[in-house]
Amino acid sequence: MAELNLYPYQEEVVERALQGENVIIWMPTGGGKTRAAVYVAKRHLETTPRAKVVVLVNTVHLVHQHHTKEFKPFLGCDFKVEAVSGESDEKDFFGLVMRDSHVVICTAQILYNALVNTEEAKHVELSDITLLIIDECHHTHKDSVYNDVMSCYVEKKLNGEKKLPQILGLTASPGTGGGRSLDKAVEHVLQICANLDSAIVSTKNYVSQLKQNVPRPRKRYDIVEKRLQDPFGDQVKRMMKAIHENMNIPPDFRLRRCGTQEYEADVMELDRRGVIEDNRLLAQCARHLRKYNDALLINDTLRMMDAYRSLEDFYNDFTTKIDETDFFLARLFQENQVELQNLARDSRYENPKMAKLESILLEQFGEKSKMGKNVESRGILFSKTRKSIHFLNDWVLSNKALQEAGIKAAILTGAGNGNTHMTQNEQTETIRLFSQGALNLLISTSVAEEGLDIPECNLVVRYGLLTNEIAQQQASGRARAKDSQYSVVADRGGAEEQRERLNESLEELTGKAIAKVQQINHEEFRKKISDLQMQAFMNRRLAESQKTEKRSGNTAASVQLLCRNCSKSVASASDIKLLEKTHFVNVNPGFERHYKVGEKKELTRSFENWEPGCKIRCSNCDQNWGFQMKYKGDILLPNLAIKNLALKTPEGRKTVKQWKDAPFTVEDFNFEEYCIDNVPDLLY
C-alpha cells in the first residue's frame, strides 16, 4: 500500500474531522484536499466499528480518478474500495455493493437514487453510512442532487435521528452565490454550511507553505480589438429584421439586442407565448430567430464559416413545411444562402479572436515557445458549448501552423446520451492519453473545470466564456505545472473581460466571507445553521405542497397533449405512465398512428430492463417527440419529451420543460396490466 503522508497544512485542516466533527475543507485547487480526505477515511475505517465510507462526486470521470489515483492506492490493501457510476452494472444493485464494501465512490445521483428506491438490492439508508465525503461540495445548493442528498440528512436530523453519517465536504471555491457585498457573501457561505451541516475550515498556521507548494498560474488578458467591419453578421441581422417584420411581435414585448444571451431568452419567451396563444407564426419565427442568434454568437466567438454551417445544417434538416410561415422562413434562407456563404469565406473579415488564439497556442507549443525545449507543454482550451468545442477542434486539425507546431488535440465533453456527448470510456481514454502526453491539448466544456488532475498541464485558455467566480477558479486550477499560464481571450471592453475582472473581486470577497464566518463563536454559528436548516426544510415542504396542489388541479383525462410545432392533438395525458420512476411513456397502442419512426436512438449507456429503439417524430410536421423504448425484450413504448409537446388544459394551453412540472398526476406503469390489455398471448 502507498504511504499516506500529509503536509502540515493538510494535517491542520483535518484535525476537527479526525475528532468526528462535520467540516468543509476549503483549500485551493492542487492543495491536496482529496489526499486529506483519504487520510480521514483511513483513520475513520481503522477506529469506527462497522465503518462505511461513501465518496460523492459530481462527474463520472472523477469517480474513476478518485478510485484509481487516491482511495484504491492508499486503502485498497486493507479495505474493499468500489467505484460505481451510471455506466457501470453495479448501479443496478447498489445496495448490495454498499453492504459488501468498506468504501464506495459514486456520483451523487447514484446515492440519491438508492436513498429513494424501495427495492432491497438497490436501497440504501443514510444510517448505513458512517462517513460521507462530498467532493466539490459548493454544489450543495438550491436544486442540485448534492442538496437532494443533504436534504434527506437535514430532515432526519431535524426529526431527532441520531444515527447519521459524519460529513466531510471539500471545495476550492464556495463562491458568493451571486452576492456582491460582504454581508450577502457571508449569507451564502452560511447557507452552504447549513446545507452540509458543517463548519468551514482552512489553514491558518501554514498559509505561506501552502502558497509555496501550490503556486497559481501567471494570468494574462489577451485582449482583442473588435473587428471594424462584420458584413456576415450584418447580413444575418438584416435577415432577422425581415423575420421581425413578418411575425407581428406583440406591442407589449421588446426584444433586446440580437447576438446576445438576453435576446435568446426573449425569443424563447415569444416561442412559448406563440404556443400558448395558438399563434404558430409567432412561435415558429421565434424558433428560427434563435438559430440566427446562435449564428451571431458563433460568429462573435469562432469562424464565420462555423456560423454559416450552423445555419446550413439547420435548414438542411428543415424539410417538412406545413404552412406559409415555413415557406417564408425557408425562402428567406435560400435567397440569402449564397451571399452568406461568400461573406463567410472572405478572410478580410475573419474573427480576430481566432488569430489571437492561434498566436497563444503557437507561443506555447511552437519552436519559439518560451517554455524551453525540455518542457513538453500541455494545455486545456475551455469554451462554452459542445458545438463550439467541435468547431474549435476542427479548426485546430485544419490549421497548418498549429499542426506543424505539434499540437495533438482532442475534445472532452460530459457523458450523456446526445450525439455530441462522450461515453465514460471515451472520457477516460482521452484523459489517459492527455496525461501520458499522446495528446497535448484538450478542447473542453466545463466538464474538465473541476477535479481533472493532470500535474503536467501548464496552459489554460478560457475562450468566449462568461461564467462566475467558481468556474474561473476551477479552470485556473487545472494549470498545475510550474510556470503555468492562464489566458483569457476577450474583446476589449466586452462582457467576457468585464466578468473576468469582476470574478477576481468576487474571489477575494469569498475569502473575506469565509474568514468572517470562521470568526463566529460556536454557539451563535450552530444557532444560525439550525435556523437556516429549519427555514430550508419549511420551504421544501411548501414547494412540495404547491406542486401537489398544481398536479391535483386537473385530472389527466382532462388534459390533451398537442404537438408543439403543428398543434395537432395526439394523445390524452391519461395515456402517459411513469416507468421505473424515470420514463414517461405512452401506453395507448393507437398513439402509433400519430408518429413516424426515424433513425435508431444511440445511447452511451446500457440499462437493466430496456434498450433504446428508434427516434419518433410527428407524422404531420416532423417535430421530434422522443424515442421508442424496447422494454423487457420486445415491448415498444414511446418515451416522450414534454418540452416538445404543448398541453391543452381546462384553463388553456400551457408548456412545461419537464414532466415534474406537468399540471396533472401521472400514474405508475403497471407491467402486468399493460400485458393483459395489449399482449393477450403473453403467458404468465
Supply the CATH class of the largest domain. Alpha Beta
Give the proportion of residues in helices: 40-55%
What is the number of beta strands? 24
The largest β sheet comes out as: 7 strands, parallel
Radius of gyration: 27 Å
**Could you name the CATH topology of the largest domain?**
Rossmann fold
| CATH architectural arrangement of the largest domain | 3-Layer(aba) Sandwich
Question: Helix segment count?
Answer: 21
If you average the pLDDT, what whole number results? 91
Distance between the termini: 53 Å
Q: Please state roughly what percent of the residues sit in beta strands, choosing from under 5%, 5-15%, 15-25%, 25-35%, 35-45% or over 45%.
A: 15-25%
Low-confidence stretches: none
CATH superfamily of the largest domain, called what?
P-loop containing nucleotide triphosphate hydrolases
Q: How many domain units? A: 4
User: What structural class should be given to the helix and strand makeup?
Assistant: alpha/beta
Strand numbers in spatial order across the main sheet:
3-4-2-5-6-1-7
> Which term fits the overall shape?
globular
Give an account of the 3D structure.
This protein has 684 residues and is α/β, with parallel strands linked by helices. It has 4 domains: 8-212 and 520-537, 3-Layer(aba) Sandwich (Rossmann fold); 215-226 and 351-494, Rossmann fold; 231-349, phosphoenolpyruvate carboxylase, domain 3 (Up-down Bundle), CATH 1.20.1320; 556-678, Metal Binding Protein, Guanine Nucleotide Exchange Factor, Chain A. 44% of the residues lie in helices and 17% in strands. It has 21 helices and 24 strands. A 7-stranded parallel sheet has the order 3-4-2-5-6-1-7, with helices on both faces. Strands 8-13-12-9-11-10 form a 6-stranded parallel sheet, sandwiched between helices. A hairpin with a 2-residue loop joins strand 22 and strand 23 (652-654). Helix 10 runs antiparallel to helix 11 (280-301). It is globular and about 75 Å long.
